[in-house]
Automatic annotation (TrEMBL):
Domain RCK N-terminal: 2-118
Residues of the full protein shown: 1 to 140 of 220
Residues passing through the membrane, by range: none
Coiled coil location: none
Record protein name field: Ktr system potassium uptake protein C
Domain of life: Bacteria
């Protein structure tokens, strides 16, 4: 079943999510405030748009409430990430995933009611460490 995703922030993390979902045949709307980033994903995502995600009216205008899952991958600008998350939770988006920069950011996102908070670098480090251990066990 095809699902509609919106990815906000097309850095390495958001960009890779956008590409992978698109490769798997999902409908993805790629969003970034930087036009050059959006142009990079023009031929990858189903739709792409230049937009400041902290602008609630702009999000409503593109019909953000119709998406099954919205992923916020705004990294360094924690304030923009939090404000975007508040807007999305207020709009009752079905599924919201947000990338957290640190524990404080994580705590606030959870308080706001974000469904899924992720720490890509930390999670990947853990997964790799576990895989190193199981590889070692197999080698002995
Ligand atoms: P990564 O590690 O995934 O490359 P990062 O953690 O360094 O990313 P940034 O590069 O700071 O994150 O942000 C990711 C993207 O989010 C950038 O392309 C940036 O233009 C975009 N972005 C930042 N603020 C907004 C905003 N208010 N609305 C839409 N996009 C935004």
């Amino acid at each position: 079943m095809k699902k509609d995703f919106a990815v906000i922030g097309l850095g390495r993390f958001g960009g890779s999510i956008c590409k992978e979902l698109s490769d798997k045949g999902m409908h993805v709307l790629a969003i970034d405030s930087d036009e050059a980033k959006v142009n990079e994903y023009k031929n990858i995502a189903y739709h792409s748009v230049v937009l400041d995600a902290t602008d609630e009216d702009a999000l409503k205008e593109i019909g953000i409430t119709n998406f099954d899952h919205v992923i916020v991958a705004i990294g360094e600008n924690i304030q923009a990430s939090i404000l975007t998350a508040v807007i999305l939770t207020d709009l009752d988006i079905k599924r919201i995933t947000v990338k957290a920069q640190n524990d404080y950011h994580d705590k606030i996102l959870n308080r706001i009611g974000v469904h899924h908070v992720v720490h890509p670098e930390r999670d990947m480090g853990k997964r790799l460490a576990h895989s190193f251990i199981s590889n070692n066990i197999l080698e002995y």
